[in-house]
Design goal:
Its cofactor is corrinoid. Residues 326-356 form the 4Fe-4S ferredoxin-type domain. It is found in: Cell membrane. InterPro entries: 4Fe4S_Fe-S-bd, 4Fe4S_Fe_S_CS, RDH, TAT_signal, TAT_signal_bac_arc. Its main location: membrane. By secondary structure, this protein is an alpha+beta fold. The protein has 2 domains: 10-42, no CATH class; 54-136 and 147-446, no CATH class. It has 16 helices and 11 strands. The protein has helices spanning 10-16, 24-30, 37-42, 85-105, 112-120, 151-165, 222-225, 248-271, 283-289, 332-339, 341-345, 376-382, 390-394, 405-415, 420-429, 438-443, and strands at 54-55, 169-174, 188-191, 197-198, 204-207, 212-219, 275-276, 294-295, 301-302, 310-318, 328-329. The strands form 4 sheets. The chain has a 4-stranded antiparallel β-sheet with strand order 2-6-10-7, with helices on both faces. Helix 6 (151-165) packs across helix 8 and helix 10 (332-339) crosses helix 15 (420-429). The longest helix is centred in the middle third of the chain and has 24 residues, at 248-271. The model is unreliable at 1-8 and 18-31 (pLDDT under 50). The structure holds iron/sulfur cluster (SF4) (2 copies). The site of one iron/sulfur cluster has 13 residues, from helix 12 and helix 13. Residues 298, 346-348, 350-351, 374, 379, 382, 384, 388, 390-391 line the site of one iron/sulfur cluster.
């Protein structure tokens, strides 16, 4: 039995988060009425989000939207900035030197076997066709009827199926004048047709009846991600170019995402419905509008259970009726105002330390919302995405929910921002996100394969982390 299995009073609750001296008013506002800590930690685990997450209205995420400015993204005029030839040459020399040092000097986390491990999972899996896998005979062509269910039941069904296929969370949007603004400009037209097609100008034509968009998140492995972190004298006080031992976390997630995509589209087509993936580049917005998470300072989607560990928010446009899910508020975006964990270690200072989200967009950023922005040129010039894994690894919301303290901290942050600075400082004190020692890096190779929580083995179920 857990040693924390004891009656939980408001006083115990505040003591557990180190706030025993806080006023009664605050304690009353945030302390839940669970009878013990086990109940608190386990509460709502069947739900997509934990119990302290609030649902907001449709099309109203915590990143405020100005619908006069939030328009379809024109990729011709709002593309990513590109680094200078000089910077590209600098990075090439720097990276080759870095790689060779690791290989020849047998540096823990960077030696030949670590580089082999990073490459082992890179570039696997191709994307499914935009209109889904072929060779499927839907039930209508087999003398049966297609699947019929209510939009709510269909959402539950998709969540169950997609989770088996590798999606951590599944939500949905109804496609309407507002949500269609998330799409790229001139990429998609909806028409009175039966099957989707793509024309010579590469515009996607999608049936009008396909007015639902299913969004699902694919998570990367946090335990393995931590093995990227390293200090570098070229970036004093920051973290820098990742160690290959941590890179499989990212590349494996991309591969998993493709595998999930094939399965998810195949599932919908086998129910007797269309499945299309077309026209959206800014997939983070899909996750935020469908309530999978909020936007974090690092500009990715941040979720209550897994922080910045969503590697991809993928999507399927379909005529299968699916109930829309609303944006959420778990205090995440608010937490970013004081946290700064990602920004303070960013080697390029691309994230800034502004204390409030902004309407200012800057190159490569989408206008029309009040949120967190990255200086993409600075980020690219340091070598991201492939040569930087710092910001997404450092988020305090990444920590596993096991134990009792993290659910408590998160539930408080979901109710009041008063303690956010304190929680972020605790994260620093407990040295989460510190680079590992050489001994720890070497020990990875002889870890206990039966107990290691970072290993994700298809077919064996899921560790509780
Ligand atoms: S990926 Fe970019 S924004 Fe993030 S820490 Fe690295 S340089 Fe900074
Ligand atoms: S590390 Fe802190 S500031 Fe950065 S996204 Fe996470 S909560 Fe926000």
């Amino acid at each position: 039995m857990s040693k924390y299995h004891a009656t939980l009073s408001r006083r115990d609750f505040m003591k557990a988060v180190g706030l025993a001296g806080a006023g009664v008013g605050i304690a009353g506002a945030v302390a839940p009425s669970f009878k013990d800590l086990d109940e608190l930690a386990a509460a709502g685990t069947k739900e997509v989000h934990p119990w302290w997450v609030k649902e907001r209205e449709a099309n109203n995420p915590t990143s405020e939207i100005d619908w006069n400015l939030f328009k379809q993204l024109d990729k011709k005029t709002t593309g990513m900035p590109t680094a200078s030839a000089e910077n590209a040459a600098f990075r090439k020399t720097r990276d080759e030197k870095f790689d060779l040092e690791g290989l020849t000097q047998k540096i823990p986390g960077r030696d030949v076997r670590c580089a082999a491990l990073a490459d082992m999972v890179t570039g696997l899996q191709t994307a499914a066709p935009w209109d889904g896998p072929t060779g499927i005979t839907p039930p209508q062509e087999r003398g049966a009827s297609r699947w019929e269910g209510s939009a709510e039941d269909n959402l539950t069904m998709l969540r169950a199926a997609f989770h088996l296929a590798g999606a951590q969370m599944t939500g949905a949007l109804e496609l309407n004048d507002k949500t269609l603004q998330i799409f790229d400009k001139d990429a998609v037209v909806f028409e009175n047709i039966d099957q989707g097609t793509q024309d010579a100008k590469k515009v996607y034509h999608i049936p009008n009846k396909a007015k639902y968009l299913v969004a699902y998140s694919v998570q990367q492995n946090y335990v393995q991600s931590l093995y990227q972190l390293r200090e570098d004298e070229a970036y004093p006080g920051k973290l820098a170019m990742p160690m290959p031992l941590g890179r499989p976390a990212i590349h494996r997630a991309y591969g998993d995402g493709r595998y999930t995509e094939w399965q998810a589209m195949r599932f919908i087509k086998n129910l007797g419905y269309g499945a299309y993936k077309a026209g959206v580049t800014t997939n983070v917005a899909l996750g935020i509008f469908s309530g999978l998470g909020e936007q974090g300072r690092a500009t990715y989607m941040m979720t209550p259970r897994a922080g910045l560990m969503t590697r991809i928010t993928n999507y399927i446009i379909t005529d299968l009726p699916v109930a829309a899910t609303n944006p959420i508020d778990f205090g995440g975006t608010k937490f970013c105002e004081t946290c700064m964990r990602c920004a303070e270690k960013c080697p390029s200072d691309a994230l800034g330390k502004q204390t409030e989200p902004t309407w200012e967009a800057g190159p490569g950023n989408r206008p029309g919302y009040r949120g967190w922005r990255v200086d993409w040129l600075k980020c690219i010039e340091v070598g991201a995405p492939s040569r930087c894994g710092v910001c997404h690894t450092l988020c305090p919301f990444n920590h596993p929910s096991e134990g009792m303290i993290h659910p408590i901290v998160r539930s408080v942050a979901g109710n009041t921002s008063v303690f956010n600075q304190f929680f972020a400082d605790m994260d620093r004190v407990f040295a989460y996100g510190e680079p590992k020692s050489h001994e720890e890096l070497e020990a990875w190779w002889t870890r206990d394969l039966n107990k290691w929580k970072g290993d994700v083995t298809h077919g064996t179920g899921k560790f509780n982390w």
